[in-house]
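Lecture notes, part 5. Sequence design as translation. It can be helpful to think of inverse folding as translation between two languages: the language of shapes and the language of residues. The source text, in structure tokens, appears below.
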């Protein structure tokens, strides 16, 4: 579904210095797979996601969607949906109109748009709030609208950049459960950025551990060998969960030590 080959990205600092932000990233994501990019803040996870979304251009390497180079993909923005940490909803539009917006821009017929909006309002359980404006919604509700809007064009690939990072712990837990429910129903391919080990274990089929500078790359790719559907309350008591959590914590700690040593 998605292939990243030898990706590199360099930007120019305010001092005019060339800074290598991403170096030698290779990654494959299968169709229908849920993959988490795990790493501390500033390790290049979000930059990588922006490149895959086509919003930044890599300085080196290629991104392929279904074997086609990203810059040659027809209808790229219909095939990839993006959800950011900041919900980025239009404050003057209702829930329904925010979800409808991408379809209206693409010129979908009104009846087709109405059916699609109805479907996703129901999917994210926002029926009673469908006519509300973003200012009248909680943080979790706003992110549900963002997810519904990203899915409205029926993309093949869903990119999520720490979408629950600004939520309180209880709302974050509920949104994780909602996301898995939606993913299992819609069978999308998901690339999800997080710095939370428990979140990555709960959500992912595989976890890509990112190194932490001076330039980011893929450290290790870890299989999450836990059965689905996952019960978060029961899962945390499994020996396999504890072992995986310890392993990921060790990898992230080693990354920090390597950075401090200048490796």
């Amino acid at each position: 579904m998605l292939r990243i080959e030898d990706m590199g990205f360099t930007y120019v600092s305010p001092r005019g210095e060339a800074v290598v932000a991403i170096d030698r990233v290779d990654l494959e994501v299968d169709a229908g797979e849920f993959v988490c990019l795990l790493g501390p803040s500033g390790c290049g996870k979000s930059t990588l996601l922006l490149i895959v979304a086509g919003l930044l251009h890599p300085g080196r390497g290629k991104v392929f969607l279904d074997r086609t180079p990203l810059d040659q993909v027809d209808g790229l923005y219909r095939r990839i949906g993006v959800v950011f940490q900041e919900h980025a909803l239009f404050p003057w539009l209702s829930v329904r109109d925010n979800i409808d917006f991408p379809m209206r821009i693409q010129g979908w017929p009104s009846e087709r748009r109405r059916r699609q909006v109805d479907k996703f309002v129901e999917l994210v359980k926002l029926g009673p709030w469908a006519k509300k404006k973003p200012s009248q919604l909680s943080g979790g509700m706003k992110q549900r609208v963002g997810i519904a809007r990203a899915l409205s064009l029926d993309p093949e690939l869903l990119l999520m950049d720490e979408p629950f990072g600004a939520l309180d712990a209880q709302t974050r837990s509920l949104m994780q459960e909602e996301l898995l429910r939606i993913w299992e129903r819609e069978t999308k391919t998901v690339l999800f950025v997080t710095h939370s080990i428990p979140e990555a274990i709960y959500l992912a089929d595989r976890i890509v551990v990112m190194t932490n500078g001076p330039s980011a790359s893929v450290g290790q790719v870890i299989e999450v060998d836990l059965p689905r559907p996952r019960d978060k309350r029961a899962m945390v008591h499994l020996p396999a969960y504890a072992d995986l959590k310890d392993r990921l914590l060790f990898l992230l700690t080693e990354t920090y030590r390597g950075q401090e040593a200048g490796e």
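The translated text above is only one of many valid answers, since several sequences can fold into similar shapes. The beta strands are 2-12, 18-29, 34-38, 60-65, 68-69, 80-83, 157-161, 189-194, 206-210, 218-223.
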